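User: Hi! I'm working on a homework problem where we have to compare a predicted structure to a textbook description. Could you give me the structure for the chain below?
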Amino acid sequence: MAYKNTEKAKNEAVEWALTHGMALKQTLDSARHPAFTLTPTVIEQTRFERLKSSVHLLGKLVHAVSQDHDYLHEAIAPITAGNVFFKTLLKMADDIHCSDGPQSCLPMLLMRSDFMDDAQLGPKLVEFNGIAAGMGPFGQRIHELHCYLAKQWPAPYTEWSGDEVGRPVSNSALQGLAAGIAAATWKIKQEFSDAGAPTFLMVVQEREDNVYDQHLLEHALQDKGIRTVRRTFRELYDGLSTGENQRLLLEGIGAIDTVYLRAGYQFSDYVAHDIIDRACCESLTQTRVMIEKHRVAVNATVSQQLATSKRIQMLLSSQSAESLTRFGLSESEANEVKHLLGDMIEVDAQSAEWVKHRPLDEWVLKNQGEGGGHCVFGDDIYTKLKALDPNEYEAWALMRRLHPLPRSQAAYVVRKGEIYVIDDLISEIGLFTVHIDGEPALENGGYAGYLIRSKSSQVSEGGVHSGMGALDSLAYKRYENT
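Assistant: Happy to help. Predicted structure tokens:
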């Protein structure tokens, strides 16, 4: 990095990030920037456009699966013996769909479909994210930061970028997600025609540090005339009530039009040690059940959470294109979906010995957990498989490991205010879609923007929040723009 003002340009990038809310909370009165790259990752325009034009089919598929309760129950039941959390989720789904007071909420599917662009196979799905599918606002912010650097610091930006980086791939994930949420929120508000502004409720975790990404979304909704409220499940437990025509009411606030869950994907979100009249987790899970029995837009419903699980992903990946048409896909749509789905296989008693004779980098072992820390790689796969109890087999799956090409030259990542040079940076591409009751909420089939997280190929955990990943954006290859 010969350019003499490199350090100054980097410092301004950090200040820009903090100024624009691209931050993680540290203490009650301090924050830090998340790790980010100083230049975008390149992608072939044809590959990105195909992803962008077809990702809505995954939203269509997942919605249909989430509405087929018999299929969900049959698919999830086998893993409940080895996964207590999914046993609880399935009971919640049964309570919602099989009781006297059925689900009456409006399903709002905000989904992030994560892909890796394999060097040989092309873009393949890594996982669905249907609950707490966040960081869309950060995805837009890092795109804007890269555009700022290209304009404000063209000399170091050009030096960092190299010859391949061309036109930036536009990203309006913050506006796209806000527009989709607003459409569902106003729909419920207009059904009731009551006074006042519509109200959006975000269910959050206690002591959450990824709050600025959430607040950016709230601010975008506030700009659309929507009131926003934040509560934990514990705060909702004795604060919710029922109004006329199954209107959901919150004490001190009034009617609620939309509930957006940024919590609920782990048992700890349902723990409240001060509730003594019944088991704490049961109390707070029933709070979530209660929400879905009201006329309110909800993301994620319990069924959406189940439908975006690794278990369902594995089953869908294993089906033929023809069998996928049962979920409302045309034959051509089902073939396109099959093109996106990666290879996944079930775990059984023979899996350990089978894996032992496969290349170490050919497969990844996954459980049903959300977020980082739920994948097993290399030699550890055999060890883990040997240690599994047979009733745990179906709660795990093997996925073919994807191998994206790293950047053609060294990349510069800023972490804790310092530049780190990484010569094997690879990226995960997350595309957001929004569907309301199965219908695209936006143009382009419901496509709402993207999130890029990049990491060294030597690192297994690539999350920005919980791993060694860095926020990144996309640019088309320069030769495609000439």
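For your comparison, note the following. Residues 173-192 form the longest helix (20 residues). The radius of gyration is 22 Å. Good luck with the assignment!
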